[in-house]
Amino acid sequence: MKRVLVINGPNLNLLGVREPGIYGSLSLASIEDNLKKQAESLGIHISFFQSNHEGHIIDRIHDAMGESDGIIINPGALTHYSYAIRDALTTVKIPVVEVHMSNIHAREEFRHKSVVAPIAVGQIAGFGDGSYYLALDAMGRHLESGK
User: Fold this and answer.
1) 23 catalytic per annotation
2) I need a labelling partner for 97 at 20 to 30 A (CA). Which of 4, 21, 61, 84 fits?
3) Shortest CA distance to 101 belongs to which of 45, 38, 53, 31?
4) Is 56 among the residues known to form the active site?
């Protein structure tokens, strides 16, 4: 059974409360529950981690070595400037799918650049909570293909 780790960065613990016009009304716990059901149907073991602290996210990425076959990450605002997270993801050599609920390319200029995207298998953005479900499907397909 393939193992996928979903990592969420700063402020994503406030989903459902934080700017529902942009991020929707579902809580992070609800999204995780939906992802668990989807993962089960895909034959994937899924685990979750969220932190508002960059160093904790980096530590969790390091801990994923040897325990995860794929990482789905929504780095939140760290997307745009955390070379430390990018370096951690590159170092562990685990396939990564970057996910965003909003279309970061259609928002404020500072959100247009992702330092994670160039090292990711792909980026999914703009589909609300659906971005996570698309990311899990994409990761499953990627892991199944062995590429």
Assistant:
1) yes
2) 21
3) 31
4) no
